[in-house]
Amino acid sequence: MKRIAIIGASTGQLPLCKKAHEMGLESYCFAWPKDAICKEYVDHFIPISIFEMDEIVRYCQEINVDGVVSNASETTALVVAYVAEKLGKQATSYQAILNIQNKEFVRQKTNGIEGLGHVRFTVGKLNDIIPTFPYPYVLKPLKGASKKGVNFVSGIKSCITVPDDLKDGLFMAEEYISGQEYSIESISFNDRHDIIQITEKVTTGAPHFVELEHHQPAHLSPSIEKKIRNIIPPILSSVNFSNGASHIEIKVNDQGDVYLIEVNPRGGGDYISNDLVSLSTDYDYLKQMILVALGEYNPVAVHHVAYAGIYFLSAYTKRLLPYFNIPLANWMVRRERKTGELTVSSSNYDRDGFIIYCSDKKIVL
């Protein structure tokens, strides 16, 4: 029986733990025991913090694991790369993941890719950037995810809100690109990049671009879809992403030009990689992530089988409230709601619930 090390035990890793069990693998989950959701779903729970990477390496060497994996988390992606590299297992290199998590590096490496729109940008401290970069622009932390600390700056009087824990760090200002936002799920193995699914996104727009809805498959013309599919592999190769799942965010403007927003070296969060891909296609995304980690990946065709998506509840989407008070409809896969007042979201962390759907057509709420 092959052994798989799973990094992290939060809700985001639970589907991966269940998939490892389904595949007949012996699973070892590494995480701090507090709030370890996955503890009861793995063969062995090892109470080592994911930040004690050398301890995880030593333990994995002792039990001779065959692969290291995680999903939907920037933090665990870095740990996976470190541990797998030390063990000589299949993964993108640790340095490559470090580089990808630096938005300046990604811009420098991708701005020259043929067919990809060029985005002007600068990097510096908040007080240095804000008055000097041409308006309008998007201000974002140089490192970070889930739209935390992202602001749209339209002029000198724009209200900029930045969490205290980010204020002293470096920021990137980049020219604002108008257009429809999409994300692309891919699997890479030994520098081969396979596009799995394209997600259409609905956001609040300026100033924080909080994501409100995701829909699969994205509604795209054949020519634009082909353009997107052709441009993703060069993006991944340019930043030396070679193995594992990735989540790339782009914008397409009215002229059909494609612009990169960011590269994420892990499967999409917000239930995209853990739920939506398996609902909208016949592709077992989580299984393939594990097979990459084990060095056993073989490309398989992807077919669309349904429409799937998610609606997030917040103060911006209070129109969804009635759908939480009716019997579960046949198109509802899952719904959850927190108690209390609805949140005026400023990042993707600020949600009050969600509804996941799957149907033979796009569900519009």
UniProtKB/TrEMBL annotation:
Pfam families: ATP-grasp_4. One of its GO terms (molecular function) is metal ion binding. Signal peptide: none annotated. Residues 103-294 form the ATP-grasp domain. InterPro entries: ATP-dep_AA_Ligase (IPR052032), ATP-grasp (IPR011761). Keywords: ATP-binding, Ligase, Nucleotide-binding. SUPFAM superfamilies: Glutathione synthetase ATP-binding domain-like. This is ATP-grasp domain-containing protein. It comes from Odoribacter splanchnicus. The lineage of its organism: Bacteria, Pseudomonadati, Bacteroidota, Bacteroidia, Bacteroidales.
